[in-house]
Amino acid sequence: xxxxxxxxxxxxxxxxxxxxxxxxxxxxxxxxxxxxxxxxxxxxxxxxxxxxxxxxxxxxxxxxxxxxxxxxxxxxxxxxxxxxxxxxxxxxxxxxxxxxxxxxxxxxxxxxxxxxxxxxxxxxxxxxxxxxxxxxxxxxxxxxxxxxxxxxxxxxxxxxxxxxxxxxxxxxxxxxxxxxxxxxxxxxxxxxxxxxxxxxxxxxxxxxxxxxxxxxxxxxxxxxxxxxxxxxxxxxxxxxxxxxxxxxxxxxxxxxxxxxxxxxxxxxxxxxxxxxxxxxxxxxxxxxxxxxxxxxxxxxxxxxxxxxxxxxxxxxxxxxxxxxxxxxxxxxxxxxxxxxxxxxxxxxxxxxxxxxxxxxxxxxxxxxxxxxxxxxxxxxxxxxxxxxxxxxxxxxxxxxxxxxxxxxxxxxxxxxxxxxxxxxxxxxxxxxxxxxxx
Amino acid sequence: xxxxxxxxxxxxxxxxxxxxxxxxxxxxxxxxxxxxxxxxxxxxxxxxxxxxxxxxxxxxxxxxxxxxxxxxxxxxxxxxxxxxxxxxxxxxxxxxxxxxxxxxxxxxxxxxxxxxxxxxxxxxxxxxxxxxxxxxxxxxxxxxxxxxxxxxxxxxxxxxxxxxxxxxxxxxxxxxxxxxxxxxxxxxxxxxxxxxxxxxxxxxxxxxxxxxxxxxxxxxxxxxxxxxxxxxxxxxxxxxxxxxxxxxxxxxxxxxxxxxxxxxxxxxxxxxxxxxxxxxxxxxxxxxxxxxxxxxxxxxxxxxxxxxxxxxxxxxxxxxxxxxxxxxxxxxxxxxxxxxxxxxxxxxxxxxxxxxxxxxxxxxxxxxxxxxxxxxxxxxxxxxxxxxxxxxxxxxxxxxxxxxxxxxxxxxxxxxxxxxxxxxxxxxxxxxxxxxxxxxxxxxxxxxxxxxxxxxxxxxxxxxxxxxxxxxxxxxxxxxxxxxxxxxxxxxxxxxxxxxxxxxxxxxxxxxxxxxxxxxxxxxxxxxxxxxxxxxxxxxxxxxxxxxxxxxxxxxxxxxxxxxxxxxxxxxxxxxxxxxxxxxxxxxxxxxxxxxxxxxxxxxxxxxxxxxxxxxxxxxx
Lengths: 438, 621
Ligand SMILES: Cc1cc2nc3c(=O)[nH]c(=O)nc-3n(C[C@H](O)[C@H](O)[C@H](O)COP(=O)(O)O)c2cc1C
Ligand code: FES
Known about the structure:
With about 450 residues, chain A is of the alpha+beta class. Helix content of chain A is about 30%, strand content about 20%. Chain A is built from 15 helices and 19 strands.
């Protein structure tokens, strides 16, 4: 709980609070534009800049992205701060002279107007729309392109954008009204969305709902009720859905929001990369892993289906794992090389295997089974391809081991003993062939 | 062979000396990017062909940049028992003549520039020693200690100069904390621009929580015209690797990345070779020197955006994301690559490290000024006699660099300003020429040390035009994320353009100052934070030029096209009529053997007549 001084007033704030939050709790008003309490600070408009003195050094810092620390002295309205703020608003206003929000800001901070040529652009590139779409909806339907003065917000490769949910969250946060919901987008979704999922379903706020209003939400009673009850754009309250925990399915753990390859490697998408690991079903078959031997070096190009690792197991048995997609091997997790037991202990987190820059992520990931996240307060999931597949795998395993070496599976189909130890050489080869394809 | 004992290292050094001083003649041609650009590869080809045709027993090598770009391509000859001789401005023909003379047993000193000592041999010919040349006299080589002198592809030759002994010393005699303390006592500051104390950064990273840490070498070198980092990577790649290994040991990192721009293919080749050689010798990889220390280095290629040199953007770019800066804190030392503690240093900083640790902090701290120790490499370009890479001790004056080393302004013109620190540095006027060059003094003038660009400007330079030129570059390179940098630079450029165009208004200077100050104070990263420097320094030191443009609609240096007027001085004109025929727009009227005059509306100020006129009758003002 750091204590700092805000314009001379001692203020204690919770750990992790920002200077902006501290100032607001001390009753000081700092103008902001690109800040939103539900989003990660983006720090681009610089309007919230304040003077921070620490260890005898004074610096200007954007308060929305600056963690509050013990002993800081913050000046929220020094002459330097006010002068800069006026110029920032002037720069923004000359970019978009008609935006009411900016005019109001200009009046508040006393910014001058008309000293430079107006540009008449609507968008001021505050990034709120991009942030909402990526962080809250996980859709990434819009992003930035271009640099410098040519920077703009657009859909991937300026194309029609397959990721857009037409949820309208971007338009709801835009401070200048630069985003309008285009009929065309709605038309497209209408045209191609054979099961016409309701946007609240796509935001994972309801388990399953089909739109009966041709995506004209203003005509929809449900939409009105949702907005009323949340008091804000629904996207901002859909947050609880994002906390991910492994779920037990047929006796095995499944981590939501990952793709599952038939040879039991999971794939997680992280920005431009994918992370790979071994799923829980495979872990149970393998028993304890003694050593992980990467067969491909970092930097190497891998093909889909190519063998990536060899795992050394009990009794000298081995298993080999295949690459679920093609790409370049960017990193190998040194952690599992050092300590192979991580694989079993934390299969979905620290026990990851490697990071790959995929060649064609979209196409290849689409071919894998995906487990969506369930919303905590609704248990049903409209479809669960991963669960279905696991069910089949369990049956396969039961058939394969039936009558082999006594009783090795529990009733639920989970191995009871260390399979590499109890199975004969041939049987073990049969297991790896069936489940890892190698 | 894997090196695990000190004797192995000594053996390698002996082999290196043997290769530098073979029992036969050794010829080395400078084929780094700068040498290659002036024809170094053709020279190499010619020499190779001659050696084959004549069946000579000569050891032919390629070497890096020796710094004196003015006299490139260079070729160096060493015969057993003699010092090295450096030949300058060599081309294929001259190279053949040199070889043919050498065959007769004589040293063709008539083509030579100087000799370079190696082991106390004395020359038998009349030739200056390299440090008797004004260009080298005031230089002191620490970072460039091996550049142009060794074969960059030879690990042994690097070892011959004491290479990898500092790493040995660090790993076998010092604890990580002692290494950091040594660097701290030496007073080494980062050469990438800001001059941040290196030891402080290392310690921050060492103390940061986390098992996995990274060191990164910033070889983005985005400043146009600057090439000191490229010269080091091409001429002495092992010095960077050794520095990084020492840093990694001090910090507790086991992986390093070198972020090189893709436009440096030769540097990438040399680095790849050096990494492979060092790996094979056990100087990188697992259990280095048989000690429990693992360190691997990987190359990351950058697309070459200026902003990717900024450390947070650079790390984003290595992770495969868009190279855009993030606000610090968190600093890379707390949360860097893949969110792990990461230490970023510049190429030149890393290349200093082996010397600091190997020769000791006392020696290093003895060079330079109170606040800035050691040397700095500058790329000296512009309107100057001797262009090249110069390494000088901190504290040397600008006058010494420009007039002694650089040989003064080109063509006997008058000096006007020197611009330091790359595109976002400032212009320093004549009155500060006696300023000692170090981090703090330069920033006191409003400029910066930056990564070491130094552009000399003469009286024919318009300072408003200079500010406009640099802002134009920065506008293209701003990533556009934050408002002050994106909009501020654009607006300043708009104002500068109209001043140059003769449409300046009286309130423009106030406006420029306001926008410049805000952009400097409020920007997210150092690009915006330094971008206004060209504007602010020219406004401060050359305000009269701005005022002449605005009040009198006049460009004192006669550069801004919209403001200059061409005229003919009749008393000098010899009525040859050449300009009449040349003028593409028919702006010069008159008849043969009669005085001509300008049609001001038609003149597009292309300057063709100015260059053509023999008696110098055409003037611009
Ligand atoms: C716009 C911008 C460009 C930069 N370009 C470079 C560069 O090309 N090379 C470099 O070493 N540092 C560059 N820097 C400085 C780096 O951010 C960083 O401070 C430096 O790499 C730290 O290394 P040092 O402590 O060894 O100086 C740049 C900074 C900014 C703001
Ligand atoms: S609100 Fe802090 S930078 Fe925009």
